[in-house]
Amino acid sequence: MPVRITAKGFDALTELWQHSPAMVQEQLSSAMNESVAYAQYQVVSRTPLGSGDGGHLAASINSEVLINPAVSIGYVGTSKLYAEAVELGTKPHMPPIEPLVNWVEAVLSLEGDEAERVATLIALKINARGTTGKLMFKEGLEASEPYIQARFNEAMKLMINKLGGANA
């Protein structure tokens, strides 16, 4: 889900870039890094507790910022294959029991036969009803948009003020 930012004063960006490309790059990089970190926090805070290969899904959510003179792109994502099913939910299906046993042990603190029994009941419910999507990425990014918008507007104001001070 892409987030598009429309900062006030971007029409002045060309002039700013011509006068001080290093300052523009620094301010935009700072705004992008802070925005992506905030979005990552918002997504992780909405991610349900669980267990899986290599740990919890929330612990696997990372961010990256790619910046070059032509474009700045920020990503928040995970390499966990099951993240899509958690995000969007699933249709009824019989899930594998072992990951559910791991989840029951980690989250419900049950062990042995009791953990396997509860995991089987959960699997049967998923087989009958599917799962509801948690929408942690969608809602996390939506919650981040006001901050991101404000942060880029702040960067533009700062650049315009610095340029105005340099021209005075």
Describe, in plain words, how this protein is organized in 3D.
There is one protein chain. The protein is mainly α and 168 residues long. It has two domains: 10-91 and 132-167, no CATH class; 95-129, no CATH class. It has seven helices and four strands; from the N terminus they run H-H-H-E-E-H-E-H-H-E-H. The chain has helices at 13-19, 21-46, 57-60, 83-88, 97-108, 112-129, 136-167; strands spanning 62-67, 72-77, 89-90, 131-132. A two-stranded antiparallel ribbon has the order 1-2. Strands 3-4 form a two-stranded antiparallel ribbon. Helix 1 packs across helix 2 and helix 5 (97-108) packs across helix 6. The longest helix is centred in the last third of the chain and has 32 residues, at 136-167. The radius of gyration is 22 Å and the shape is elongated. The mean pLDDT is 86. This is Phage protein. It comes from Pseudoalteromonas gelatinilytica.
Order of helices and strands: HHHEEHEHHEH
The class by helix and strand makeup works out as mainly alpha
Rg, rounded, reads: 22 Å
Distance between the termini: 42 Å
Mean pLDDT: 86
Main attributes?
single chain, 168 residues, mainly alpha, 2 domains, two-stranded antiparallel ribbon, 7 helices, Phage protein
